[in-house]
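Hey,
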Amino acid sequence: MTPRCYILTLSMALCIISLLCALGAPVSPTGAHLMLCQAHSRCGGKLYDPQQHCCYDDAVVTLSRTQKCGNCTFRVCFEQCCPWSLRPQEAFVVKVRGQGCSLARTLGDRVCSSVS
């Protein structure tokens, strides 16, 4: 092949990839959720779609996953359970994920009592 054919072939390949990205066409077998142009994240050794899942304790979990925090329930992808012992009957605080547990309480925090 001549250099002109290589350039034409490369241009066509880039055009096809651009079209696939624009249309969101899958490039993996049916049933797999990874797309060529879709953003994805890693959790341990696994890839996941951050619009449907999050990484919690090195495990991929759904965005709706909840867990107990004393007598409260918190959403593990968006909140965190922090120990808090200013009062004996209030042993936990649910804070926004990423906020330091050692920071003072804010208006959005929920105080949870310990379960006996």
